[in-house]
Fold each of these.
Amino acid sequence: MSSTFFTDKVEICKRAVNGGEAVSKISREVGISENTLYEWVARYRENSKKPFVGIGHVKPEDEVYKKLQRENKELREENEISKNSFINLPDGSSISIVEVCKYYSDLFHHATLRTLAITGVPILKIEKSE
């Protein structure tokens, strides 16, 4: 119904705007109030390509904004979960997942640097100026 109804609304607006038919005549024929048809025509004149945004018909800039809002919400939820997530250690204490990640990130970084140093891979090249 929605795609047919959407097409019908556009055609009805075209009749009112381009065809020059009276709004009162079209509204009686279609079975809607004149005020509703005036609203449709105003939307059509504002944006004739996508006049009726709603379910399945979203303006591109609104679509991007909604996508960013969704991503932001998901990231905030993930962040809250990780802040409140703890690992129980054998000694009865606990540590947050965030702290574990920071620790292993630093550990991995230092281990990588040690490995590069042992294998002779230059980590930092310093040129002497003459």
Amino acid sequence: MARKGGTLGNVPSEYGFEWKSRIRYGRYPLIHIAVGRGADGKIRVARGVIAIGQFGVGLVTIAQCGVGFLFGIGQAILAPIVIAQVAVGVIFGVGQIAAGHAAIGQIVFAQYGLAQAGLARHLWSMTVKDPEAVEFFSHLFEASLTSFGLK
């Protein structure tokens, strides 16, 4: 971890790491990794086709907190398809708290939900076994096994 410059309170004014690939897609690097703060004291945000960091925005985002325009993985992520502790998926979310058209988690908010508890039009939980949810997630599980060559 590099430290340069003065201080911002008790925090060094620049610490962390930033790297961008030379390959670009339009204005964005193929890969952007950003962690920590810049010399101006602002939090670095990874912005790229693949964004990796504490905060990230990209087609694919791997971050503590971020937005993925296709897929995201992290702690708190918004993306069409997402795996996160707090997962807000437009299509599919998996997480401790998950939302999406279909969601799997401890607590879910979805059209189709598989959870310990949740709000879903079709919920498969510890206390509720909506037949449409059971069929949906059983088919999803079977299709996943087939896709990965496990069946």
